[in-house]
Amino acid sequence: GAVVSQHPSWVICKSGTSVKIECRSLDFQATTMFWYRQFPKQSLMLMATSNEGSKATYEQGVEKDKFLINHASLTLSTLTVTSAHPEDSSFYICSRLRLAGAFDNEQFFGPGTRLTVL
Amino acid sequence: GENVEQHPSTLSVQEGDSAVIKCTYSDSASNYFPWYKQELGKRPQLIIDIRSNVGEKKDQRIAVTLNKTAKHFSLHITETQPEDSAVYFCAASIVGGNEKLTFGTGTRLTIIP
Reading across the β-sheet that carries A19-25, which strands appear in turn? Predict the structure, then answer.
């Protein structure tokens, strides 16, 4: 069964509002989780690495003040898209490592959240 | 940072024939290379992976080969079936490093019945 869940699975919001997406690790405590964005017919692009108890590490070109990441517990990371605009419409997917350790870093992905900004 | 290129972007194969998708990577420190299958609107699903200490790995109809010297790896699907139709992504990462996955651009595979 699924080991990573996301909520909501889809959301439609008005331009200028903020949207929070939750990513939960269901069977394992995850000190590290990852957030990806996927535009239609494109690949997955890593946005940031979410670290439990510390600040997230953002990829180059990703605005940390716009995409707020909070990893307050070992099973929950949240991504908040602030002041969303139509260009933020995308498929947002989180993931976690299978296990922390050498040579065992398969990533399990959440089911994704489809964000549409009107 | 790592850059992963993937070819072809689209591939149509007659049912029962083989399909090959190729990827190249730029960072010689990368040592883990997974392949994902993604159906429309769904999460990526790992179908096979290979680590840098291995040159080839096979799982039933799916195989992956890795050439570390040339920095390229390939996915081979034999005896293709209609349910193999999907978008396939290769990726690369550094185990024991930042663990970040860098994805290729994807290949849309269509199996023609």
Answer: A4-7, A19-25, A76-81, A67-73
Distance to chain A for B34, nearest Cα, Å: 8
Average pLDDT over every residue of B93-108: 89
Q: Residue A102: which pLDDT band, with cuts at 50, 70 and 90?
A: very low
Tell me how many residue pairs between chain A and chain B have CB atoms under 8 A apart. 53
Judged on CB neighbours under 10 Å (0-12, 13-18, 19+), A118 is exposed
d(CA B48, CA B68): 17
Does B2 contact chain A (CB < 8 Å)?
no
State the average pLDDT for chain B.
95
For residue range A13-38, what is the model confidence (pLDDT) as tens digits?
999 999 999 999 998 888 889 999 99
Is some CB atom of chain A closer than 8 A to the CB atom of B32?
yes
Residues of A within 8 A of B41 (CB-CB) are 91, 112, 114
